[in-house]
Write a structure and sequence with these properties.
The structure holds two protein chains of two kinds. Chain A is α/β, with parallel strands linked by helices. Chain A contains 18 helices and 20 strands. In chain A, helix 4 (122-134) packs parallel to helix 5 (155-164), helix 6 (179-193) runs parallel beside helix 8 (219-230) and helix 11 (333-348) packs across helix 12. The two termini of chain A are 42 Å apart. The chains are: A alpha/beta, B alpha/beta. The A-B interface holds A 40, 105, 107-108, 118-119, 146, 148, 152, 155, 175, 177, 212, 216, 218-220, 244-246, 249, 287, 289-294, 362, 364 and B 60-62, 102, 104-105, 107-108, 111, 153-156, 158, 183-184, 186, 188-189, 200-203.
Amino acid sequence: MAIKSIANPKISLNILTEAEVRQIHRATLDVIESVGVRFPSSLALDILEEHGASVDRQRQVARIPGHIVETYLAKAPPVYTLAALDPALDLPLDGHHSYLGTDGCGVEIIDAFTGERRRSTKQDVSNVARLADYLPQIAFHWAPLSAQDCPPQSRGLHELDAIWSVSGKHAQTETIVDARQMHFAIEMAAALVGGRAELRKRPVLSIMQCTASPLGQDGGSIEAGLLAAEAGLPVGYMTMASCATTGPATLAGNLVVGNAEVIAALALMEMHAPGCPVYYAAAQTAADLRTGAYTGGGPADFLFGAATNLLADFYRVPLSMGAYATGAKEPDWQAAVDNSLSAFMAVSTLSDMLLGAGLLHGSRIFSYEQLLLDCEIWDILHATFQGIVVNEETLALEAIRQVGPGGNFLGHKHTLKHMRELWQPSFMDRRPYEVWEQRRDGARDFARQKARTLLNDYHPSPLDPQLKAEFQRIIAEAEKV
Amino acid sequence: MADEILTQLTNAIIEGDPDLAVEMTQKALNAGLEPMDIIQQGLVPGMTVVGERYESGEYFLPNLIISANGMQDAMKLLEPELRARQQAMSVAGKVVIGTVQGDIHEIGKSLVATMLSVNGFQVFDLGVDVPTEQFIAKVKETGANLLGLSALLTTTMVVQREVIEALEQSGLRQQVKIMVGGAPVSRGWANEIGADGYAEDAIGAVLLAKQLVAG
């Protein structure tokens, strides 16, 4: 199976001018230099201070001169590859591709067979990973759900175990947020590829950490990231600064706050391990003005989705962008609007990685139906972004001449040759009305049926028993307190 | 004159101008008004209008917060005056609140604390990354009848359960009703760990707190 990435799209979007990007950049450096960013980690503060930041130990705030941030960001490699166990599934982050991953990390799942909503387990992680392995639209895994039946100190490792036991695609973990667990995650990844040196060459694992908006980091996430950077694993920091709560109400101001958090963290990684692969990550939104909650959807998200890649491009690092991830409670109209538009906007500026498919209610509840419908959205985008190809063959003059006025193209060999280039739905309902009326079913029902079939029938070849045993040994080690 | 000052104070609360609210409160004290009257006839009517406007959809959460800030700032001037007169506001309940150990997420917890505070609860906000023992000690020290536990990570949710267990062990469980919240927290989780209530947002948390203290 080849991964269905969106490459070299014909459609593009001008969302910010170069001058506006520079304005945001300058404002960001001003914030980092004059206000500072909180790093609740003495290890991080030591590194920042050694490299020229002025550090307030009591407040755990580092103010970093702008030129120092720029110097260290410039050490980041602009292009690298997210490796997969199966090299055919490698993902070059070369600025020419957009890839879709699963979303994470949900806490509840809607069971594909009973429809019941319940807390997620390790088995659920494994089941979702099996489907993600099957689906060509899914290029890489996130831990889609929390393995809540596993102990917190090893939960992220169990999630990786569940994924790697059924899939050869790249894994990006967002749930390993302390250095101790990260140490064991690196051991697992190294075991998978045959050692630390090989892992550096073929990072089958990449690391996603969250910032703590506004203008803060989480100490555990920072120290875990530093450890991963040492091991050569790609590390990204994601801001979820939200307009009106954890960021200013204005979109540009919110970009500045998020940008400050992300580039300060990436600069720290480059101070610690110069040249290490890093990436920008963001899932900014506007808070719901009634409740203050994270919304996941709406015009602010769509604009952030497109604008953020311009910032990442400006810093010459890849982007992992929180697109999809609807706030809807069901795979419904709202979910379709949110996920279609947010993904469209993120792809329109060629964001490298999109997160992600399958979750509802602001990334809390996993739905198999939603996962498959999200993949169909990706298919639609894949076709749309190819644009309209204009050349002698596609202008079809010869066929037009032969058919002439009043004929039709159904039986023409030019049609036979090219018709399969036209997009075909898997779940959209294009049946005659009367056929629909007999059962009144639709996309959700088709998607649910497909999920059930895959869950029953698709069983990828299991992981080598020796490796599985090694994973178990490492996890047991992590569970020794 | 006195009426005019109180009206201006009420409007300062409604319009969300904490500086003006403080200024008017000081002016009212200087004019010889009783602190309890300033509260009952100046601040409370303002917060009532703000609440009504929120309910009707005209006001949003930031309106509630800035008005609450104005009220809290004004109360800082009034509380010493109340104490000097050996008076006290009636308290709807005593709440200890914080984000559990290992978790540094603040905003949701602080929103709930602010909203509880302006709704007549006495709030002891322990901040973030709060050790379990500190929750226990504060409940004991204050005689609180409510405890609010916030967690934003799937890995720190479990600490909510630990705090509840520790309360049971220390014999304080019967004294407090426990409310849990945070993005990954659900009603199912609240039931599973033996919490007394769960709300999805700060407004819901106030309603819940009122229900819980009413028994």
